[in-house]
Amino acid sequence: MTYPETIVETHPNLFKIDSNLNKMVQKIELLNYINPINIEQEKRNFFTSKYNINPNFKYRRIDFNAHKLQQELFSQDIDSINDPVAREFYREVIYDYSGLIQCIETIGKGPKFYYNSLKSFGTPTDKDVENARFILHFDDEYDQELFPVFNAEEAAAYFEEFTKRYDFNFKLKFSTKISAAAMVQNNTQTLFLKKNHRFSTNQLKVLANHEIGVHLVTTYNGLEQSLKIFHNGFPRNLETQEGLAVFSEYMSGCLTLYRLKELSYRVLAADCLRKGCDFSATFDLLHNQYKLNREEAYSISLRAHRGGGFTKDYLYLTGLKKIYNQYQNNKDLDNLLTGKVSLQDLPLISKWQKEGLADTIKYKNTAFEKNDNENPKLEFILQNLK
Predict the structure, then answer these.
(1) Number of structural domains in the chain
(2) Which of 107, 266, 286, 293 has the fewest CB atoms within 10 Å, counting from its CB?
(3) How does pLDDT run across 125-150, given as a tens digit for each residue?
(4) Which domain holds residue 253?
């Protein structure tokens, strides 16, 4: 989208600062650095030690000057933005990006990273932990679609077929250095698949609706906007983005109790950080107390302890509840797909659209067109989360 010169002339400093930030933040993608490069080796060592010796994770080297980038961020003349609402928003953007840089430069440095993670993502509240435990008390349901039978190449073929409903092209790569089964890299429009992972039928549906239906849709919608902040990310957008992604699973009929329990275990693992638990103690809680198999227990413990204590995983469940409530009150979620935006900034998005500073979405999530969930237990759970 290209704006008429009159709009740019009316908001010259807004576009100038937005453009400056776009150039600066291309390397601030936390997921590029947070995943250890020796996941599989450390898993073997941990299992060999009978779960007693904590993994010693290694991370890729940061390829930018964090201190210089911080200086450049805070040198932006935010006060020159005419509109007070936009001015305050971009001031918040500076602090948010600064927090992410602090996270990246302290990865692998134990408590330093954990405290920076707390500043950027928060930690589960007692209410969040209660919600997780509420979900975990429901009995599992047998479903043959949950058996892992597809390799990464077969998964890639499934995702390429799924993407035909959209007219955007993304890169697809295999990796042994991601903690999740699949992950979208926003700044390169790349979907990474875990090379040695085996996918179930249900997981393919889940990942397609989660990663492509939301994360790639918001990536490409953000690229359509002239204000680059839509692509680079609003402050505190993670909870909204992950909430939308899991809600997409629910609306497309592939969200299961098994998956909700997985998100609940992530909340408990993030809560372990708050209680000072090390990797072994978190693994023990999941494997021995909650009877998760050791592969799943390791994976969830890894997600929580990578970097030195990464709290963000609890936001999937809190985000799901907030998006579910938003949908009940207003069926139209389109403005939440305009880019990497936050639920609390919906009034700003509407304001910018009225002023001609933002456009409506090009790509819709087809799962949001109608509710295909047929599991009354899931409906009951989502209605009763606090």
Answers:
(1) 1
(2) 293
(3) 999 999 999 999 998 766 666 788 89
(4) 5-384
